[in-house]
Design a protein that fits this description.
Length: 199
């Protein structure tokens, strides 16, 4: 079975105002160039942006790190950077660190994320995009999706999550002598057989 590859390649080729947004003209040019490549180089494409980064999302059957795919993205970025310079956009072409394509855009400025897989009848795909941040920006949201029992029904019905608390807490009170009351807590682990009785 032929594997499908999803390539997401992004670069800041010019923005307005400042480092905040990709100009609609650049999105239009990039979308047109990728549409022209559909059916020959790529299967499908989608052009969007995250902040000032122009994002090219492409599907194809050529595998990861394919020279033809990376060259297509590079040419799109070069054309958009040229237009951005003509429009006098902020930071025009700033992510394009090399003068000529060398077979792979890695190390040339653009960011790349690619994944090859056997496509099924229904394979939803999410692309997480962020600008001016680090990958850790997604930690809380991914935790809430996959690890929080209040939003992940699989955790609610998992027998390992219904055993109860693995400890017992007891509290004792004593007077401090001058009318003050101090609280002392103690926590002890209980075997599973005793946990249900305490709860």
């Amino acid at each position: 079975m032929v594997k499908t590859t999803v390539s997401v390649i992004k670069a800041d080729v010019g923005s307005y105002p400042g480092h905040s947004r990709t100009h609609p003209k650049l999105l239009e040019v990039a979308a047109r160039m990728l549409k022209e490549a559909e059916g020959s180089t790529i299967i499908d494409s989608y052009v969007t942006h995250c902040g000032d980064d122009l994002e090219l999302i492409m599907t194809h059957t050529k595998g990861e790190d394919n020279e033809e795919i990376h060259e297509l993205a590079w040419n799109v970025f070069l054309e958009c950077a040229k237009i951005a310079k003509e429009m006098k956009l902020y930071g025009a072409g700033q992510d394009l660190l090399a003068d000529a394509f060398s077979g792979n855009v890695k190390g040339m400025g653009p960011g790349v994320a690619e994944m090859e897989f056997e496509e099924r009848g229904s394979d939803p795909l999410l692309v997480f995009m962020a600008d001016k941040t680090e990958p850790g920006a997604w930690n809380y949201f991914l935790y809430k999706i996959f690890a929080d029992p209040f939003s992940t029904s699989g955790l609610v019905i998992d027998p390992r999550c219904t055993r109860g608390s693995p400890s017992r807490s007891t509290t004792s009170w004593r007077s401090g002598g001058s009318g003050s009351i101090h609280r002392k807590s103690h926590t002890a682990s209980l075997p599973i057989s005793e946990r249900r009785a305490v709860m």
